[in-house]
Design brief:
Order of helices and strands: HHEEEEEHEEEHHHH
Number of strands: 8
Oligomer: single chain
Distance between the termini: 47 Å
Mean pLDDT: 87
Helix content: 25-40%
Largest sheet: 4 strands, antiparallel
Radius of gyration: 23 Å
Length: about 240
């Protein structure tokens, strides 16, 4: 795991140096912290969209009681949903909003096609058809970015965003410096070019976390068999 031990105070100083505002009160430290947090959120999105599982949190629900379930306060994007029932774990498939009434069809009910499916909707996660078997749902999700507090300048990058490797903070510093200079209506063209260079660097470096192994084609059906089908096969 990256161990970026730079503190918020270090970042503030770096931003002031890059913007040539050391000792200036035109932009307060609190404003710079706001700019740093916005830039950290950008780095968060860059890493999330590399789809290398940099950020993974979990939340559990109990069915059928938690249908619908309330999404975690830090929920950003779903990564997958597992259903543990009878000692076996199945990966659930999502359904689209247009398919919300699919199990109201007499034909579907008659055909006994009753694999549990999920859908993230608003602040909830919903399951169809209404589960009749008790089990535990595990939602794997990407959390929202964590922000620095302006009152905790000793907080380190690794304590707030442990996925941000050493050197990635240069993107944050440049972006915050740009915002400082924009406030005083100064030219930021050179910094914009440098920001783009840092963006390209992070995207290239963050794209493959397991550098020693090649990717393989995923079997999207693996682990998605109906628990009802398994129950029938065991009879």
């Amino acid at each position: 795991m990256p161990n970026n031990t730079l503190t918020l105070a270090n970042l503030i100083t770096a931003v002031r140096r890059r913007a040539d505002m050391v000792g200036s009160t035109f932009v307060s430290d609190a404003e710079i912290v706001d700019y740093i947090n916005v830039a950290m959120a950008e780095v968060h999105d860059i890493l999330v969209t590399k789809f290398e599982d940099y950020y993974v949190s979990t939340q559990t629900y109990t069915l059928p009681a938690d249908n619908p379930g309330t999404l975690p306060a830090t929920f950003y994007k779903a990564l997958g949903v597992d259903f543990d029932v009878g000692g076996l774990t199945y990966r659930l498939k999502p359904y689209s909003f247009q398919e919300r009434a699919i199990y109201n069809s007499p034909g579907m009910v008659a055909s006994m096609i009753t694999n549990t499916m999920y859908h993230v909707q608003g602040t909830q996660i919903k399951f169809i058809p209404e589960p009749t078997t008790s089990g535990t749902i595990t939602l794997h999700y990407v959390p929202e970015p964590t922000y620095f507090s302006s009152g905790s300048t000793s907080a380190t990058v690794v304590s707030v965003a442990p996925q941000v490797a050493k050197g990635y903070e240069e993107y944050v510093v440049i972006d915050a410096a740009i915002k400082c200079l924009q406030k005083e209506e100064s030219d930021v063209q050179v910094l914009l070019v440098q920001k783009q260079q840092q963006l390209q660097r992070i995207e290239q470096a963050a794209g493959k976390r397991d550098a020693g192994e090649s990717y393989s084609i995923s079997d999207v059906t693996a682990g998605t068999s109906s628990y009802l089908d398994d129950a029938i096969n065991l009879v």
